[in-house]
Design goal:
alpha/beta, single chain, about 400 residues, 2 domains, two-stranded antiparallel ribbon, Nucleotidyltransferase, domain 5, about 45% helix
């Protein structure tokens, strides 16, 4: 006969004689049929837990009736009526207790998939802003700028991939239709082919578009040194971050750009600006920095263009220098600046109306609104600034340059 006595009540106390209980023998244990039912119940709960994608007991409890009905209906499980009744009546706490061993077994194996990006990040070494020292020309910091027009909203927007050489300040910008790792590879390959000097390495942030197997294999296959910055430390990429503001935002503005037409207009702008910036725009380069208490004293080299720094660098071969001099002699800065202003105007119209100025030429109403928009101060959707008007960017200093349609 089975009695519902706990172990504390059945165990004799020390110093007291307890008369034997009639019908209970020493070393009593539940019958084997009870143990078998308990094991079957545990197996049924494991099946239901796996079918529910290993949710916790509190979430599995209300789901059990639905799962039992669906699993039995499709022939995955055939429960005894007694076991089925117990499974339907089990509490959430009992579910967690029964499944504790199974849960502990998988906790050390896979709780959450880390993905390929985590493995790539562990394979790519970290380089901080203090680790650059004085590198050779060819080591680039790369970053992306999204032209979403202010507050981020759902949608595919045009991106700019910015590459800045640490030694010389040579900067390349590439327009990308969307943010995608294969487009990043195409952009890096395009820049490497157009550079007057060889690309030696790239340093990026921890963006998934950079920390991907495709980019990792491309850098390894082309002999590029791939490094990354620390997470949430934007100062590790101070060079390219400065160019994002001084070049990309200064040329393009903060408008919302999307679609093939905007991508092409942005690519045309960068095609003209890359030569003007790298050959005719001097920039400062930090020489030393000393701290005296709260004061920081910085000393800069004499302003020079990226082309000048390449010509003065001892590691650059004479063949490359000769090509740079020949290219410099063939460039017309006034013509380049006119091409930049024309591309800016096209991009400005696309950001304002979704079409270029050629697309609105035959519509007087749109022409009038376009002129009024330029006079009002270049605000687009959601009140955000968009691509600057050509004359606004010059501050009146280049008003003597005539329109390219009228010639020089």
């Amino acid at each position: 006969m089975r009695l519902g006595l706990g172990t504390d009540r059945a165990r004799p106390r020390s110093g007291l004689s307890t008369p034997p209980i009639q019908g209970v023998t020493k070393g009593f244990c539940p019958p084997r049929s009870h143990q078998k039912n308990r094991g079957t119940q545990t197996q049924a709960l494991k099946v239901l837990w796996e079918a529910a994608d290993r949710v916790c007991g509190n979430r599995l409890k209300p789901l059990i009736p639905v799962l039992v009905d669906a699993i039995e209906r499709h022939g995955h499980l055939d429960l005894d009526p007694v076991i089925k009744t117990k499974v339907l009546q089990v509490s959430a706490a009992t579910i967690d207790r029964v499944l504790a061993a199974a849960r502990a077994h998988i906790d050390g194996q896979r709780r959450r998939r880390t993905g390929v990006g985590s493995a790539i990040r562990r394979s790519v070494p970290v380089r901080t802003f203090a680790d650059w020292l004085d590198p050779l020309p060819g080591f680039f910091e790369i970053d992306m700028v999204e032209h979403c027009g202010g507050p981020k909203a759902d949608g595919d927007y045009v991106h700019t991939l910015t590459l800045t050489d640490i030694a010389t300040g040579w900067t390349e910008c590439v327009a990308m239709r969307v943010r995608e790792q294969m487009l990043v590879i195409e952009a890096i390959d395009k820049v490497a082919a157009e550079l007057p000097f060889p690309m030696l390495g790239v340093d990026s942030n921890n963006d998934s578009a950079f920390m991907s197997q495709s980019v990792f294999d491309y850098c390894k296959g082309h002999g590029l040194v791939q490094t990354r910055s620390r997470a949430y430390k934007k100062n590790d990429q101070a060079w390219v971050e400065q160019k994002n503001g001084a070049i990309v935002r200064r040329l393009v503005g903060y408008g919302r750009l999307s679609g093939a037409a905007a991508t092409k207009a942005l690519a045309d702008l960068y095609a003209a600006s890359r030569l003007y910036i790298n050959f005719f725009q001097p920039s400062f380069k930090l020489r030393s920095k000393t701290r005296d208490g709260a004061r920081v004293h910085k000393v800069y080299f004499k302003p020079a263009t990226p082309c000048d720094r390449l010509l003065a660098h001892s590691s650059v071969g004479p063949t490359i220098k000769e090509k740079l001099r020949a290219q410099f002699m063939s460039l017309d800065p006034v013509r380049l600046l006119q091409e930049i202003r024309l591309a800016q105007q096209t991009l400005s119209d696309i950001a304002a109306h979704g079409v270029s100025s050629e697309g609105v030429a035959g519509t007087p109403a749109l022409q009038t609104s376009s002129r009024a928009w330029r006079r009002r101060g270049r605000t687009g959707k959601q009140g955000q600034r968009i691509a600057s008007s050509p004359r606004r960017n010059t501050g009146g200093r280049l008003g003597w340059i005539r329109s390219p349609t009228r010639g020089l």
